[in-house]
Structure formats: structure tokens, C-alpha cells
Amino acid sequence: MDQHILTENILKQIDLTKEEMDLFFSFVKIKKVKKKQFLLLEGDVSRYALFVVSGCLRSYCVDENGYQYIQQFAPEGWWIGDMYSLVTGKPGYLAVDAVFDSEIAMIAKTDLNRLYTEIPKLNIYFRVLAENALVYYQSRAMENLRLTAKERYERFCTRYPSLIACLPQKQVAAYIGVTPEFLSKMLNQ
């Protein structure tokens, strides 16, 4: 794996020595996943933090009618997972799968806890990630409550400019909370 993208992501927030970075990467597992391959199913206990090196993942839940509600897309350089399950150790609510063939870096929760002790600066990095995730999810919740479908689509385009042209319209619709038919009609007006 080219460690550059994850290294760059970390160094935006904290400074690590070469030795600290080497120790960090000694706990990172790399996995190639195929399009539509699951990394986590609803009801699984999440044991890993997932970082997208290349490709794209998504997290979502499915209702009793089979309709998907996409919570997040994670293109290259983003973290993703079921935070509830990862933090509590309880079965989660989200599925995570690959939108495209992808390469991911995985760090076990148990290894993260060890790294927090051995490299205390990582506490700051992951605290910043958690704060950013909280802001993201709060913004998403408020957008879904307050914005029109068109405004939610515009926010999607701003948040994920690299995905606009390559995602199936069905997935964009599931992210903004409308049917694919409604999205198609809206975009053709």
C-alpha cells in the first residue's frame, strides 16, 4: 500500500516522528475490496476503524421495505464505520460496503487503544476525527429536517464533488432521502 494518503491525513492534524509513524503503520492492515463487498453488516459488532486509500465505501441502513438510507459516502482519504458499535462494542445499525473496487486501511479498536498509550498524540488526531464526524452527522440530521430535496442535493454536490458523475442516481437519491424517480424528475426540471 502507498502509505502516503493516510500519512498525509494524519499529518494535517498532528506531527509524528518517523518512529511513531512506523509503529502506527505496524498495526494497520490493508485490504482490497471488490465493488458491493461488505465490510460490516447491520447487527455486526464493528472491530475496526476503516480508512479509504482508494475507491469509495458507503454506510447505510435498510428499512423493512428494503429501502436504503445512505448515511455517508467515504471516498479516498475519508474514514468510515459504525461509530456506535466501534465505541460501545455492541451490534451496530449500519452496513458498510464498497461502492467501487477499493483499497482500505483497517485498524483494530484494540490496537487503537494500545496506540493511544504508546503515541499519545494519536488521541488528538482521533479526537479531531470524532469531532468532525459529530459535526458531519449533526449537519446531515439538520439538513434532512430543514432543507428541500433540491437543497439537500446541492449540499451533496458540495460535500462529494468527486462522486457526482460516477455514483448511480439510485445511491444519490438514497443519500438525500428521495426516490430515484423523484431525483430524476427534479434534475430534469
From TrEMBL:
Coiled-coil stretches: none
Signal sequence coordinates: none
SUPFAM superfamilies named in the record: cAMP-binding domain-like
Any Pfam family hit: cNMP_binding
Domain Cyclic nucleotide-binding: 15-115
Protein name (database record): CRP-like cAMP-binding protein
Lineage: Bacteria, Pseudomonadati, Bacteroidota, Sphingobacteriia, Sphingobacteriales
